[in-house]
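Why predict the complex rather than its parts? Because the way molecules touch one another can change local conformation, and only a joint prediction can capture that. The input here totals 519 residues.
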Amino acid sequence: MIRFERVTKRYPGGHEALSDVSLEIRHGELLVLAGHSGAGKSTLIKLIAGLEKPSAGKVWVSGQEVGALRANQLPYLRRSLGLVMQEHRLLHDRTIFDNVMLPLIVTGYPPRDAAKRVRVALEKVGMAEFEKAMPLTLSGGEQQRAAIARAIVNKPSVLIADEPTAHLDPAYAREIAALFRSFHSAGVTILLATHDETLFSPYGARRVELSRGRLLA
Amino acid sequence: MSPSFHPHGIALRQALSRLGAKPLATFLSALVVAIALSLPVLGLVLVDNVGSLARGVSGKPEISAFLKRGTDPVQIRAIESRLRADPRIAALRFVPRDEALRQLAERGGFADVAGALTENPLPDAYIIEPKGDEPEVFEKLRTELAALPEVDVVQLDSAWVTRLHAAVSLARQAMLLLAFLLGAALVIVTFNTIRLQILTQRHEISVSLLLGATRSFVRRPYLYFGLLQGLLGGLVAWALVEGLVRLIAPGVETLARSYNIVVEIQGPTPLQAVLLLLFSAVLGWVGAGLSVRRHLHDGPVD
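Output of the joint prediction:
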């Protein structure tokens, strides 16, 4: 599903965020990407979404080489991924409902079904009652759940989350972890970057660890 | 509420809501555009009014060919048949010297003068009306007539019309040049407005791109915004010009009447109005397009 082939990412200025990483994430897998902060977890995720290009090596997503995609092909790659980035990145000027609607608007989804889909996604993350709320009136955990709803509203086959439990207190963090677990049971491939891997250990996830840009065996 | 998800529908609605979100800013931008545009448009409208006046006059330029004294009737008839055969001449009228004197006597103030004359000093004359309205043709006709042995003096009364035409076309060019310069100002105004918008909407842009929005999806609302802002400016400019024309028309008409000219100052014609709106909308779109190219280039995605 996702394959890294001897990937190195060097940022301008010489910092090497990833060094010679080879990794394969299979269809239907739940993979926890562990590592201290600055180990290269976010860089790895950005390479999958085509937000960065590898300095060496190749990244494959669903049989497409991401680095070889033209700028006008990247949007279609991103639509096939559900991304939950580190800062949840909800738009503060609109309701939770409109935030979750955004991916459907962007992809030109038929309007009649869109609202239904938004409600289903909000339901799944337990946020149905907050659809009219503005993001800033909600707690960190609620905002994170809304961001997850936005990532799954397009029914992606892969869900990728960068530190989804960061800044959350343990109770909220466990709820979020259970949420990913339920998506995984429904057959979604999941990649989680987290420094808090113990949250996911009960779910039998495969675990890989990055340290200073290198994958530990 | 069932909003259309057609990409252009979305873009247009977004642009409209951005215009509506800041009514004062929208109004002021439209006013800047309108003032910049109304100046050359008003100029062009006035020039066109004068131009149509000049066209009305130039419809009948006259060439007066005064014959030498003592030209005998046979020669006169010979000239007449030659002139009648000339395809460049639309109409021809012979004014015998006696009739010329009578006309002079009828004109106020000259009766005494005519009565005091012991002999008619006036020559026979042909009043010629040439075809078309090309000054070169008139000029050629004039020199040819002057070369005839029986003709003493030729007067072309359209010289001032030629000058008026030249002045009108010069003023027109000046106004078009001004329109070009102020059009550039319109492009710059839109460019800057869009730049500020992109800066404030950075977050929304990067989230949209992250969620798989195409670049044209992100760009489109800004292009529509520029187009609508230009169009709005054009509309206000149109209203301004109509108003200004109405304000100054009585003054111009009074002035013209004192010269015994009847003028009716007209506002922009429907075609001119449509062109104005088209021009301002296209310039707004161009300004937005340039700004989007400059400020939305590669990577709001971070």
